[in-house]
């Protein structure tokens, strides 16, 4: 079975390209019945309200929720993370429908508007321990959300320090660091809960494939191994532990 990539809007082509670099086939998903042909799914970044309207138009939400409930691995990046959250705030008037399943509260545009998009090196100890490579990952945050609160079953994989005077929300999940003259609060930007993975940034826009490798191993853990659950792409490097490349341009 191949890895599905929800292809309604956003950076689905970039995810498919990242999977191909790892020797894995990504399949574009636009209709509910196509979910029967994949064992795992990536919900890409994009404009979350637009994606939700398109998903509703194609009657995808019931199938997506069933996919999650069946325990199949799902990874949401940026807008995809919003989709997976049980609760989202900071939405446009009228809100948007969510898939849910991830026990957390998301702020939809925590880091601001499109012109406030940025890149930053974030500490990723869990990713580095499982996939090797540096202790940091270059996070590309484009009109990005953030995780405000998490449930007891949610594992925090990465956080990002924000000056306290710029924090839009405060909760017990936000830690204050008093070491600097300007206090900072760590906001959550990557989480995992069982079969669900969420990142507020865009790994698909970088040359570092470790997050994709991490997710593929989640997918293989559900099935009986790579030979039965993941389709290899002929001629591509199928190694899931290749070192990060730095020659691919990313958002500046």
Automatic annotation (TrEMBL):
What is the top EC class of this enzyme, as a single word? Answer: hydrolase
Which residues are noted in the entry as L-glutamine-binding? 46-48, 108, 142-143
Q: Which GO terms describe its molecular function?
A: glutaminase activity; lyase activity
Entry keywords, A to Z:
Glutamine amidotransferase, Hydrolase, Lyase
Gene3D superfamilies, A to Z? 3.40.50.880
* Stored CDD domains: GATase1_PB (cd01749)
Question: Looking at the UniProt record for this protein, which Gene Ontology cellular component terms does it annotate, in alphabetical order?
Answer: cytosol; glutaminase complex
Which reaction is this enzyme known to catalyze? L-glutamine + H2O = L-glutamate + NH4(+)
Q: Which InterPro entries match?
A: Class_I_gatase-like (IPR029062), PdxT/SNO (IPR002161), PdxT/SNO_CS (IPR021196)
- What are the catalytic residues? 78 (nucleophile), 202 (charge relay system), 204 (charge relay system)
Q: Does the keyword Chaperone apply?
A: no
Mind telling me which SUPFAM superfamilies this protein's record contains?
Class I glutamine amidotransferase-like
Q: Give the superkingdom in one word.
A: Eukaryota
Q: What is its EC number?
A: 3.5.1.2
GO biological process, any: pyridoxal phosphate biosynthetic process
| A Pfam family it matches | SNO
PANTHER family for this protein: PYRIDOXAL 5'-PHOSPHATE SYNTHASE SUBUNIT SNO (PTHR31559), PYRIDOXAL 5'-PHOSPHATE SYNTHASE SUBUNIT SNO1-RELATED (PTHR31559:SF0)
Give the family this protein belongs to, as stated in its UniProt record.
Belongs to the glutaminase PdxT/SNO family.
Record-given protein name:
glutaminase
Species of origin = Cephalotus follicularis (Albany pitcher plant)
